[in-house]
TrEMBL record:
Keyword Protein biosynthesis: yes
Protein source organism: marine sediment metagenome
GO biological process: aspartyl-tRNA aminoacylation
Transmembrane segments: none
Protein's name according to its UniProt entry: Aminoacyl-transfer RNA synthetases class-II family profile domain-containing protein
Molecular function GO terms recorded: aspartate-tRNA ligase activity; ATP binding; nucleic acid binding
Family under the similarity heading: Belongs to the class-II aminoacyl-tRNA synthetase family. Type 1 subfamily.
Keywords: Aminoacyl-tRNA synthetase, ATP-binding, Ligase, Nucleotide-binding, Protein biosynthesis
Domain called Aminoacyl-transfer RNA synthetases class-II family profile: residue spans: 144-584
Amino acid sequence: MHPYRSHTCADLSKDNVGEKVRLSGWVHRVRDHGGILFIDLRDHYGITQVLCDPDSAAFADAEKLRSEWCIRIDGEVKARADDLVNNKIPTGEIEVFVRDIEVLGPSKELPLQVFGDQEYPEETRLRYRYLDLRREKMQANMVLRSDVVSSIRKRMWDRNFKEFQTPIITASSPEGARDFLVPSRLHPGKFYALPQAPQQFKQLLMVSGFDKYFQIAPCFRDEDPRADRSPTDFYQLDLEMSFVEQQDVFDTIQPVLTGIFEEFGGGKSVDQEWPQISYKDAALWYGSDKPDLRNPIKMQVVSEHFAGSGFAIFAKLLEQDGTQIRAIPAPTGGSRKFCDRMNAFAQKEGLPGMGYIFWREKTADSVAQELGITVNEAQAKLKAGEVEGGMEAAGPLAKNIGPERTEAIRQQLGLNVGDAAFFLGGKPKAFEGVAGRARNVIGAELGLTDQSRFAFAWIVDFPIYEKDEETGKIDFEHNPFSMPQGGMDALMGDPLEVLGYQYDLACNGYELVSGAIRNHKPEIMFKAFEIAGYGKDEVEKRFGGMVNAFQYGAPPHGGCAAGIDRIVMLLAEEANIREVILFPMNQRAEDLMMNAPSEPQPDQLMELGLRVIPQD
């Protein structure tokens, strides 16, 4: 027999009754039932119940066992009584009577329990990640991640993509985030960088004549952490293709991701139609370039209804250039209690508040106030039909702008009795983010967001340039390597009107994919950078390898990258990306388990010709 096991802890069934078996694993929990010890023995594959009674030679050893000791047991498989069968586990029809126990690895007192669903501080979980990973949910998340990556590879191979690995040690290249620099021992004073993405290398592969490339690529960015972003490294499905247009990239990646979400989505429906929404419309309708389309709410511009109105705050605001008033419809949100909650939300977001109107059945109170009579008289008039009932608008805004404007807003937004609308104003870029978050909260609290589906949308037509409001300087707003729509001709006009063949894919409020059709013509690239204030010499210095390559018959090409971590996070229904990464950093980009970053040894610094300057 094998020295450690004849079966895993998920293998045994009634077919094995009477067999002598050997199992190895961890003590999940121990229960003492009238002197008989029941031990749930766990390995990666499952749990088997083993038991030991005082007649067993191993009973004295069994009494010493504690949670998470690693042990080997020998025993005999027996069938459970019908009323003791556990249908929740595959091995629930049998149990193993222990004849011998060997402790392979005892455990100290645990800093966190593996059994159960107790919540522990993230610091504890990350410091003892090897224990945290023993928990059932974490095991499932990591197996899911492995299966997703395996399925992605197969799907890409089936589409005739070739998998290549690009360098990890390379030159520094601005990609929109900070590089991790690596000092060179052989070239003192010079530094390599870890790649933020394989961007330049995958484009060079297209110049090299490879038609379709992909890899599951590690990427390194020194970024501020968020719940959906790692502060140091992450993995992406990176792909590039030659002789393609934007739609070709969409048609390639859509069936891959559709298949992944159908295979691992736990029965949730996967939208088959992926709308293409311009960046401008996404900002207007959803307040975000990664909208959650499970939420049906679309914001609208309602400036005309407030211009010259009795609501002075919005009326004066609209006298300034570039300002708007936008409405967030809230079907079924027509109560003062809900409106007050949303107003409090806006205040937490740093705004003075959020204007609102809600529509309700006309009340005796409002009729009494309107006609200057008592509430009882108003009730009588309503009952007798002497006063027309129906709908009325309520809230401070309704009183300030009057019934005609209020009714025009209601009709534009398509709202009725029991509905509400919330309003934000100013320069769109200043309030779009808050508006988008408010839309998400409204959709969730009112039950409008469909939790049973994955909803995808391509965001297209990204602007290439933006202007700094203070300095007036033109700079890149998005990927500087995207091909401008219209090519060189587009760059001869207003830079702020130039759109790129750049695109993102949003799913349920997260950006899953980002990509572009690349600018493969040196003359267009030089002009694009010139507009942003970068001379030809600087472009050649920063991106010399790629610029030189493009002068030797570069094909039109494009591609994208899909975030593996975020895909798995969505499929696992986790809100934090660290739940699907084996050994993540904490919010301060620290590895508490391995004590990184750490101070280098003096001889290491000397060998590299470096000196650390203390920070005040």
